[in-house]
């Protein structure tokens, strides 16, 4: 498998334009990326552009800080699905996490998972691993990973620390079988991308996707 098939080609800057999104879509089709991940306001247009292709449409909910009310996140998810998103990357409420309010977190994730799965969409739960302690990452894996989510995702890319090999390995060790890992944040070259895949990531979120693919040694492209 080509490494491009692991990548969610990402444009999430708050100043993104339709031109940026159209370029993102063209590159995703050209290189064969798994998905594009774009702001919610561009989902409908992106879905129309990518309809004839195999590239999936992903968007974000509660992004980037995660402290939106659960009701707001559910509403965002419903709209994203209606507009054509096939995958939803949702940031958990980190305030609730720091207060060990697992009832709140589990209810929130369960409600959004239900919206996604009722329409055949995938849910990726973002935990912002770079600012969490090891025990907090493990608790996310065991307490939220058991709720039927599709992916646990390391990072938004907006915290001071993004994806690490250590976090991916820790998540791989403690997540239930069947929950995949998306690594994101600070992935800018083929070497690091390959290392994260080797550690257990099955999806990568990156804005430097083209550089990752074009910087890959030719003899290694077919292995990832």
TrEMBL record:
UniProt GO cellular component terms: cytoplasm
Major location (coarse): cytoplasm
Highest taxon of the lineage: Bacteria
Database matches in SUPFAM superfamilies: Aldolase
Pfam families the UniProt entry points to: DeoC (PF01791)
Known catalytic reactions: 2-deoxy-D-ribose 5-phosphate = D-glyceraldehyde 3-phosphate + acetaldehyde
Similarity comment: Belongs to the DeoC/FbaB aldolase family. DeoC type 1 subfamily.
Protein name per its UniProtKB record: Deoxyribose-phosphate aldolase
Source organism of the structure: Flavihumibacter solisilvae
Gene: deoC
């Amino acid at each position: 498998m080509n490494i491009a098939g692991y990548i969610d080609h990402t444009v999430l800057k708050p100043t993104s334009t339709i031109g940026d999104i159209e370029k993102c879509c063209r590159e995703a089709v050209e290189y064969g990326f798994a998905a594009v991940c774009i702001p919610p306001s561009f989902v409908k247009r992106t879905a129309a552009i990518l309809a004839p292709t195999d590239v999936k449409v992903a968007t974000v909910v509660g992004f980037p800080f995660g402290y939106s009310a659960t009701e707001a996140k559910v509403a965002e998810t419903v709209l994203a699905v209606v507009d054509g998103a096939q995958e939803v990357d949702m940031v958990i409420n980190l305030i609730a996490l720091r207060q060990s309010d697992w009832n709140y977190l589990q209810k929130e994730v369960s409600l959004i998972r239900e919206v996604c799965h009722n329409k055949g969409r995938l849910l990726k739960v973002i935990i912002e691993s770079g600012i969490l302690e090891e025990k907090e990452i493990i608790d996310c894996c065991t307490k939220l990973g058991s709720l039927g989510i599709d992916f646990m995702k390391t990072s938004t890319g907006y915290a001071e620390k993004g994806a690490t090999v250590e976090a991916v390995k820790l998540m791989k060790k403690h997540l239930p079988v069947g929950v995949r890992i998306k690594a994101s944040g600070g992935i800018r070259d083929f070497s690091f991308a390959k290392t994260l895949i080797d550690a257990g990531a099955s999806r990568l979120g990156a804005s430097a996707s083209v550089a990752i693919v074009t910087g890959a040694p030719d003899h290694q492209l077919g292995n990832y």
